[in-house]
Amino acid sequence: MFKSFFLIFLFSGFVYPQRIVSLLPSYTEIIFELGAGDKLVGVTNFCDYPEQAKKKDRVGDYLSPNIEKIYKLKPDIIFMGEWRNDFIKKIKNLKAKTIVINQEKSVEDIYKTIRIISKHINKEKEGNEIIARMKKEIDSSKKKSYVKVYAEVDKDLWSVGSDSFISDVISKSGGINIFNDIKIPYFKAQWEEVVKRNPDAVILFSTGYSEFVSRPLADKIKAAKDKKIYVLTPEERNLFSRPSPRIAEVIKKVSEYLSSK
Amino acid sequence: MNNFIKIKNLFFNYGEKKVLKGLGAEFSADIVGICGANGCGKTTLLKIISGIIKEYEGEIEIFDKNIKDYKKKELATLLSFVPGEVNTPFEFRVMDILLMGRLPRLNFLDSYSKTDFNKIFDIADKIGIRSILDRNFNNLSNGERQLVLVAQALIQGSSVILMDEPTSHLDINHKIKIFDILKNETFSRKIKVITVLHDLKLAADYCDEICFMNDGKFDFKLKPSELLTGCDKISKIYSISEDKIKRYIL
Amino acid sequence: MKKNKNLIFYKIFFSALLFCLFSYFSLTIPSDYDKDILINLRIPRFLTLIITGFSLSTAGMILQLLTKNPLADPFIIGTSGSSMLAIIISNIIGLKFYGFEYFFLILSFSVSATLISYKISVLSSSQNTSLLLSGIALNSFVLSIIVIFVIFSRDATVNFFHLSFGSFAYNEYRVIGYSFFIISILFIIISVLIEHIKIIAFDEEKAETLGVNTKRLKLIVFIITAALTSVSVSVSGIIGFVGLMIPHITRRLLSNADLKILFLINAVYGAFFLLISDLAVKSLFYPTELPPGVISSIAGSIFFIWLVLKREKRNE
């Protein structure tokens, strides 16, 4: 019996991955959060959290990873999102195990991602702990509802529909996306519609405050009258759109903002 | 007889190539034909006289005044140019094209008046193109197109008409028709015609004098009656034997 | 007989126009509509559309006539790349979009680029072709620099997309007013020069011998084209297709009209076309927005193919 335990102990080192490559900043955060940061050998250029992530080897942009560099790092497992098929094929050609994770469209999808990653690196217990912690923080954050929110995620009226991650973050924060009726995740809105739907609060991801209020009839919008126009800093912008455990912080912050005077 | 066009020492280069090398001439006859081998500079000469090409050396006088001293519009009332052919991707009615001929006589902000239209109808009748006034220029036959271009020049009402191989690609009936009209005009309105020609027979029938160009200059000129006796000179220009030329002219 | 056909055509056209205007302002607006929105958003949008349609179709027509090339587009002479560059620069230095200084920046860039193309083309023997070629070269050069810049900045990417396809949203009445004023002056100049332009479109050498100063006229017309194009770009970004195809459509539908009337009707057709495009966007894609350049390209290509096929049938 000792022998079998000994063998299992030996093999566990080989069976469970020791060299991980992450091709999305959110996965990098999750892996560190799970306590497996030391096993990460490659991250993308955009992986900037936590601080230790910045010291890891960069394998390129997550839109076009440097296959050769990934190969040189000899990973056991690679976590990537569902992108271009030709890249998935090329990466699958490397001898490592490749896990393709679907894009998160809601906060619940983050829990799915955490479960998938934690399962593959043998950190399921830690994964469940993170999920529980997030759920608790998010539930306690929910304050008032019925705050109509317009989110301009890219300059010049680009907004999000109900089938998008950002929209779900807004609803978890106690807001209602004014474009909830649209199933398209990312689209260009008509300014007339924004004015008509009269949001109570506006979140600007990259548009400037002055540019927004200088648009015709902007002063008629309730959000402008109540001065409830929140301009995200670049760090906040990243946080808002990154499906990582830190989203709980974001939801807390946003729900406080939305329910404040 | 007054020389209406005087050319002195005309030099023109097309890039590195020397085209006109000190050409000089004086024209007084009613219909002057200009002949010469391909590429000897006939078309270039016409374009310089008509003002299309402006960078040349030498002096050109029309009615005793240097063409550079004329205002552009004034020159247009004295000279008109008939190109060998016109290529345009757009549709133009014959009527519109003829109206263009009236432009030099129009003041800046005027539009075309009844006088203009009447003149056009007169000339259209004379030339016999009244029936095609409403048709699209691009849909006409070669002969009809050339008639329109000649009509346009006549409508311009200029004293001198310069023509660049106007009948090269026309059938005989149109060749004759056009030159008959021009001959008529030189009688009735005292206009002068200078035309570049390839057809020596046509030149013999209609021109009052034929000037031969060679190597960037005028070599010699002949009256139609002198054509046969001048065959030796002609053969040198075209580098064909004298006999062949004689046979062609006869 | 011909007069009757024309009359019926005009009747249909005007009824269609009225119907579209009516739909634009009423059918796509629900009953509890706000007067404020109408005055401050709908009407400026409508006027912007008209400015764009007028400028682009006219610029296209005179450019095609002057270069004797039915495939010339007003953006080809260097105005597309240069206006994009101007817009990106105004973004960097923080000029307000659709404002006054913004308009002049675009105008100066457009005209300068056109002058550069023109100067290059004058040196060659076949000026018309060279003008378009040097315009294309200039556009490509500027565009590649812009693209390099855009790859490194996400904000610029989105801007770039918006720029390439235009937008009719939010213009101030002040900008609209100035644009109309400038267009009117340019139109007056064009109507004075139109006979001369017509002659150049027939044969440049004949134009010269008819007393037209072709060199000066060409320069003036190119500058007018650049000015019209930049008015359009400054109010609605870059909208392709209109300048290229609308003159064709006008010529096909009204082959025998006097050029003075033709160019005005051409302008109206341009505006009408954009009106229909915007109507389609508002009814089909509500409440999302589809950039006008996209619709005009699709709808226009289809229409043009139909026109070409119709012509082929006639020739057989």
Instruction: Strand order, main sheet of chain A: write it out.
Output: 3-2-1-6-7
- Helical residue percent of chain C? over 70%
Tally of separate helices of chain C: 12
> Which residues of chain C sit in consecutive blocks of at least 5 with pLDDT less than 50?
none
How many strands, which pairing sense, and closed or not: the largest β-sheet of chain C?
A: none
N-to-C span of chain A: 66 Å
Gyration radius of chain C, rounded = 20 Å
Low-confidence parts of chain A lasting 5 or more residues at pLDDT below 50? none
| SS element count, helices of chain A | 12
The structural class of chain A is alpha/beta
Distance between the termini of chain C: 24 Å
Helix content of chain A: 40-55%
Output the structural class of chain C. mainly alpha
Round the mean pLDDT of chain C to the nearest integer and report it: 81
What is the helix/strand order of chain A?
HEHEEEEHEHEHHEEHEEHEHHEHH
Rg from Cα of chain A: 21 Å
Largest sheet of chain A: 5 strands, parallel
Order of helices and strands of chain C: HHHHHHHHHHHH
Describe the structure.
- The complex is a heterotrimer of chains A (about 260), B (about 250) and C (about 325).
- Helices cover about 45% and strands about 15% of the residues of chain A.
- In chain A, the strands form four sheets. In chain A, strands 3-2-1-6-7 form a five-stranded parallel β-sheet, sandwiched between helices.
- With about 260 residues, chain A is an alpha/beta fold.
- Chain B has a six-stranded mixed β-sheet with strand order 6-7-8-3-9-10, with helices on both faces. A four-stranded antiparallel β-sheet of chain B has the order 2-1-4-5, covered by helices on one side.
- In chain B, a hairpin with a 2-residue loop joins strand 4 and strand 5.
- The two termini of chain B are about 30 Å apart.
- The relative contact order of chain B is 0.17.
- The model of chain B has no long low-confidence stretch (mean pLDDT about 85).
- In chain C, helix 2 runs parallel beside helix 7 and helix 3 packs parallel to helix 5.
- Chain C is globular, with a radius of gyration of 20 Å.
- The mean pLDDT of chain C is about 80.
- At the B-C interface, helix 2, strand 6 and helix 3 of B face helix 7 and helix 8 of C.
